[in-house]
Structure formats: structure tokens, C-alpha cells
């Protein structure tokens, strides 16, 4: 056993950015910690609880950079995440996706294990399904009503009469209403930071108005939950809000950089790839990372600067400038200068290593089983952290 452990430690010690099998997912831990400290500091000044979303990282190891004690509070987007983080010691969890009746049993199992779980609904039908389940007297999760603050996705507008009907149905069914939750999804349409303070205020105002309407109707609404990575960084006033959620802030990505929330140097996630060929007549350099390694996400396609399938950096993470992954098939990436660029194609011989910054950290991370962690820059890999998958 001792020999096996020593061999494993030696194998990790031998892993480097310039020798690891590619494609490989890299995580710069110094940037992760810096990004966490930046947002936590802002929210501390604004006087609200931080309930980070762990759907981007999907990793206990990353979550413990947020909460060394491992208890939370956290937000998840799947019940598999809730179960995984609960098994890792997290006890305060919000499942922030609309609840379907078939998932009620799994939520109750978590509550029975001692997890302080909140679920999300926006209809009387969902409230009635929870009330029906509660008839047996066993523990139930708490409930947040989803509020639509910008027409982006689900939820009820704060002045919708259905808001009170949902709350009434929960009370009739003996299910605890914890409060309201909203997400300013339209903030992702901002560019260069323009409009983000206004989006944050609209998000705050909608959630607070909904909570006040419920209280006026005789319902408790102690939780007023808001958040997206863009609005969390640009909110100026969070009066009436009790907690803020954000997720991709830990890693950031090219979408967030285009929106104006972060700089390129804040992006903690990258994919290492190897040059496998050249097509000089087309201005192409071929790499061994296609959409299976980078994802198909083209979130910057409508931005002023289209980053293709990712921005190309040298092995140290410094961007080449206008070199992007212009196209991708399953296991091939095509590097090319951005349209209109006057830059020269860099000299990248066969076998050269590059690092690709992702459009969408959540989507790129989902293509990989593990993070290869760099702690102090350079090329040494200090740890490998697993990621969970599933629903």
C-alpha cells in the first residue's frame, strides 16, 4: 500500500502542463482564490449572505475554497449535485431549478438526512404536488417561489396575483414557504459593463416587491434571494435582500470578459492542447482539442469580439492576441487568426502546447472528469480534483 501511494505521489509530481496527456483541463488556484475574495468582499460591504452556486465547479475540492468547513450555504442546479455535496458535508443547500413532482421524493430523502434544503416553484400545480406529498407527515423541504425579474426564463412577476395563490396553496398543504428567489438572466446581454448596475437594481426591486406582497397577504417571506455573476459584481444597493447567488465568478470565462465583469487575466480555467498539424495554405494550425474538450458553446458569437470556440494562449497562459479556435470537430480544433486581423500567425511547431480560454466555463468543465491544479503559476501540477456529473 505504501509503495502504491508513493508511486501515485511520484506520478503526480511528474505531471506538468508541458507533459500531461492532452487535451487536459487546467485550473489556476491563485486566480480562483482571488476571484472568490473579490466577490465575497463586495457582498460583505453590501451586508448580505453569500450563497454561491456550485454548478460551475461541481467539485467538493473547489467548494472548500469557498467554505473550508464544508457546510455552505450553497446553491445547486441538479439533485445529483445536492446529493454529492451533502455527502461531502454541506448541509445548507438551495436547489434552484423548478421542481418537478417526480423529484419530490429525492428532496425529502435529503431533508431526512438532516439537510436544510430549499426547492423552487412558480405554480399552484407544484405547490399542490408538494402538499399532497406532505400528507404522510414526513419532513419536507422548504420552498422558494421563483420571481421573474426580466422575462428571461421561469417565475412569476412580482405583481402577479398567482403569487399569493401559490403561497396559499403551500400553506393549505402544510409546506413551509421560505421566501422568494430571482435570477437576472438578461444581464448576460450586457456588453462592457453597460447596463449591469441597472439590471442589478431591477433584480433587487422585483424580489423585494414580491416578498413584500407576500408579507402583506399574511405570508412569511424571510428569504429574499437574488443573483447572477454579472449583477452580483455590479449591485450598488441590496436593501431588502438577504442572500446573493453567483456561480461562474469562481472561474470566469470569455463571456464574462465580454460582458465586462472580468479581465482575461481573471479566467482561471483553460484547456491544454497539442499542435498536431498545419495547413499553411489556409492559415490553419490543427490541435487535438475539438468540441469534446472545449464544448460547442459559442457564447461570444454575438459579442463585439467573437472568440470562436476559445481564445488561444501560449503554454504560460498569455494570449497570442487574435488567435482563436476558429472551428472545431469532435477531436480536432482549427486555430486561425480572427477575421480582419493584421497579426502574423504564431510559429507553433508540431508538438507545441497551447492553452485555450473557454467561452463558457460551465460547459467546458462539463467535458472533463478532473481538474489539473496549478497553485503557484508555472508548469507544475500540484493536484488533480475530480468533478461530479449527472442529474
Features:
Alanine racemase, single chain, 391 residues, PLP-binding_barrel, alpha/beta, D-ser_dehydrat-like_dom, TIM Barrel, lyase, 17 strands, D-ser_dehydrat-like_sf, elongated, 6-stranded antiparallel beta barrel, 12 helices, 30% helix, 8-stranded parallel β-sheet, 2 domains, Lyase, Ornithine Decarboxylase, Chain A, domain 1
Topology of helices and strands:
Elements: H1 2-13, E1 24-28, H2 29-46, E2 49-50, H3 60-66, E3 74-76, H4 79-87, E4 92-98, H5 104-112, E5 116-121, H6 124-134, E6 142-147, H7 162-172, E7 177-182, H8 196-216, E8 223-226, H9 229-234, E9 243-244, H10 254-259, E10 269-279, E11 284-287, H11 291-294, E12 311-313, E13 319-328, E14 333-337, E15 353-357, H12 361-365, E16 370-374, E17 383-386
Parallel strand pairs: 1-16, 2-9, 3-4, 4-5, 5-6, 6-7, 7-8, 8-9
Antiparallel strand pairs: 1-10, 10-11, 10-15, 11-14, 12-13, 12-15, 13-14, 16-17
Helix pairs in contact: 6-7
Would you mind describing this structure in some detail?
This protein is an alpha/beta fold. The protein folds into two domains: 12-25 and 268-386, D-serine dehydratase-like domain (Lyase, Ornithine Decarboxylase, Chain A, domain 1); 48-250, TIM Barrel, CATH 3.20.20. It contains twelve helices and 17 strands. The strands form two sheets. Strands 2-9-8-7-6-5-4-3 form an eight-stranded parallel sheet. It has a six-stranded antiparallel barrel with strand order 10-11-14-13-12-15. β12 and β13 (319-328) form a beta hairpin. Residues 1-8 have low confidence and may be disordered.
